[in-house]
Amino acid sequence: MRMRLILLGGGSALGQALIRLGAEEDIGFLAPKPPEFGWDAATLTQLLDDTRPDVVINLSYYFDWFQNADVDAANLDLQERAVERLAELCQHHDTILLQPSSYRVFDGARAMAYGETDEPNPLEARGQALRRMEQSVKAICPRHVITRFGWLLDDSVGGVLDRFLKHAQHQEQLFLADDRRGNPTPIDDAARVLLAILKQLDCSAPLWGVYHYGGHEATTPLALGQAVLTEARLRRDLAVGDLAPQPHGATPDARYEPQNGVLACKKILHAFGIKPRAWRAGLPNLLDRYYRQF
């Protein structure tokens, strides 16, 4: 690859997956260690002045954006300011910015899958912050690719999958929504998508804008949980029996999780040739990597 790539958040689950996948194709990333208290305007300015990259992949706050159960409002405010400054720096240096986002920018009231032209209306603080970050990037940095992902599944400690499996290990019964829908997306598949985008950009394809990606076959948390448990039981004994269905409105996270988080992925297919992969096919490797930690 001709472009010089800087990966902010290389230590995150998605950053590590991207580095692994890139290494298989001899694609390297400069992944600087973040400052003790995270990237801010001053440290980002120094970094880009020193390195002058062609592309910045911004996974600097990946865990908070995609995996954390709860994110402090003050941290989200700091992250917004950092993204705004990063967009300014990328515009100044004529650098491409790859900024991830989420299905959380939608309220879930729509019955059909969300397309890129549908108007966001986030339910809660994290979705609202992600929406404002999108707006900053679009307004400031013309050469941007914003990728909204579906339900990202990774092996990070404290992440969505980890929380579910720890409950399954110790509780005999779990309730999951059977009337909420989304696109599960294993982390290796998300990394594949980002790498495919980078390859097209390396060919000087000016494909700026917002794109959606989620794993093939929209499903419910209940069906996803059953599929995860089937794989997990091949590797560990679990206390949980059968999962029980629960209405979306009765779930503890209904106030911030969209009831419909399904993303339409036609635009990314037409622009980059990226086809959605079946999320079920990614579960064995994901569970293998998760359990190797324990």
Structure description:
The structure is a single chain. The protein is α/β, with parallel strands linked by helices and 294 residues long. It has a domain of 191 residues: Rossmann fold (3-Layer(aba) Sandwich). It has 10 helices and 11 strands. A 5-stranded parallel β-sheet has the order 1-2-3-4-9, sandwiched between helices. A two-stranded parallel sheet has the order 5-8. The longest helix is centred in the N-terminal third of the chain and has 21 residues. The radius of gyration is 19 Å and the shape is globular.
What features would you highlight for this structure?
single chain; 294 residues; alpha/beta; Rossmann fold; five-stranded parallel beta sheet; two-stranded parallel ribbon; 42% helix; NADP; EC 1.1.1.133; RmlD-like-bd
